[in-house]
Structure formats: C-alpha cells, structure tokens
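Hi,

I'm pasting everything inline rather than attaching a file, because the server keeps stripping attachments. The sequence lines come first, and each chain or strand is labelled.
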Amino acid sequence: MNRIGVVVFPGSNCEYDALEAMSALGAEAQFVWHSATHLDGFDGVILPGGFAHGDYLRPGALARFSPVMEAVAQFARAGGAVLGICNGFQVLTEAGLLPGALQKNRGLTFLCQPTTLIVESTKSVLTRGTTVGQEMVIPINHFSGSYTCDDETFASLVANDQIVLRYKENPNGSRDDIAGVSNVEGNVVGLMPHPERAMSTLLGSADGRVLLEGFVGAPVGAH
Amino acid sequence: MEVNYPVIVDVTLREGIADPEGATIERALPALGFNGVTHVRAGKSFRMNIDATDESSALAMASALAERLLSNPVIENATARSATKG
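And the predicted assembly:
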C-alpha cells in the first residue's frame, strides 16, 4: 500500500478532500504539518488547495519558506512523486520546483466551475494512466490561475513534454491554455483544476480518479 | 554605527507580462471622466526601516530581500529606493 503525505499549511482548505480521495483509492494517507522537516516513509506527497498563509504577498510566496518545503524539494530531487493542486501548484512554482508562475485570472473573476481538460502528456506521475488527447471534466476554483512564463521557458516546456494538461476552453487567460505542468522528469506535477473533487459521478464527475490512480501508483522514489 | 534608514521597495510586473489589474483600471477611467490615460500598470509598494551602517548597505539589503521574498522574479521586478529623499 502506498503511503501518501498531504501537506497542511495554515490556510490550506482542501486537505481533507485530498486525504479522502487517497483513501478511496486504497492509499494510506496522512497529514504532514508544514513545520515538518522530513518526509521519510512516504511514497508520494500532495500539496493541497487553499490559501496557505492567507495568500499574503502572493499565493505561495510565504508557504515556500515553510520548513516542510525543503523536505519536499529533497523528496522531489530524489525522484519522489509530488503533486500540487491549485494553491499547491502556486506553492511549487514559487518554490522553483515547477517553472512559470500563476497570475490573477484574466478578467479578475474568481472562477468556480467545471472545466474540460485535454491530456497533453502521459509521462507525468499524474497522467501515466491516461492517453494523449483524452478529455476529462474537472472543476476549477481559483482567483490566480492564469499560467504565465517567458518565451524561453515556454519553449523548454514544449521541448521536454512538460505541458501535462490543457483547458479545452481557456477560462483564465493561461498561456497556451495550460492547466498543468510537470518538471522535466515528470515526477513533480502541478495543476489548477481539482481532481480530488472529481471522484464520483454523484458529485458531478469521476474523471479525477484516473489521474489520482496514476499518482497513487506512481513509482516509489528513493525514500 | 548603525542608523535606521527608511526604504521603499516597488514591485512591478515585468514588461511583457499581462496585467489584468492595470488593464481593468485603465478601462474604468474614461467612465469617470479621466480621458487619455494609458499604459496603466498595477504594482505593490513596501515601506520599511533598515538598520545599517550607511544608506547603500540599507538599499542593498532591501534589494536582496525584495529579490528573495517581496517579488517573484519570474514575473516581477523590484527596485529599492530611499524614503528620505524625493
């Protein structure tokens, strides 16, 4: 059974959804407080959605200096599977573990709605159970989700197959409709949509399952 | 001897980075009767006092902390200036 750590910052608010989703998929999930200094014994780590440290300064700007982030960086370097959802994605970009940045949505509206996503790469730990071109309906819930990067970074994302998911219809002004990206190796992934909120057709969509199943089954890192 | 220097750090979006806040403000201005206002860019300003032996050291520290914390160099520029002079 895979052990998954769900990092909790002051201001996280999707940690229970993430924990529940992991448990539903048979993983042994537990919370990791942001002051933790190691992630020994975990096979994967999730940075959940919310407003870590109140999103003061910029989303993720203060959370990246939480002690646990040094452990997350070490875990990622060792090949461990790391998933940042929404605010977790913002934290990973601020920490430099993923390229680019998330800006305020085009139109300055807070968006809370289902979106259709298209799988662009299957090399990441999140999309390894999917096929390129596969469509899925996953909700978004954010104010700062417009993915931004410079031309050089964008070229390297394309060249290294790091664009994981795109929006079918761009809701927030993200560059090239990007909804999620990975690092070069594919073991660190961030996305603005919430797969943990798409676990059951009763709640609108079960399309998040195939993503999180891939993550739970992700190869065990060096830890 | 260390002196307390008032410093202002301005954080602005890098050129070429879309600024939805600035664009929204710019669009609102004509309705209020302010015509001919263009190139509006939104940013942040931080004021602080820094203990240092001279002003250039204070500004150097402000630049360093602006680079590390106050700005995201991926999308923003930060400049530090003295708050005692115009």
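The mean pLDDT of chain B is 94.

If the labels don't parse on your end, tell me and I'll reformat.
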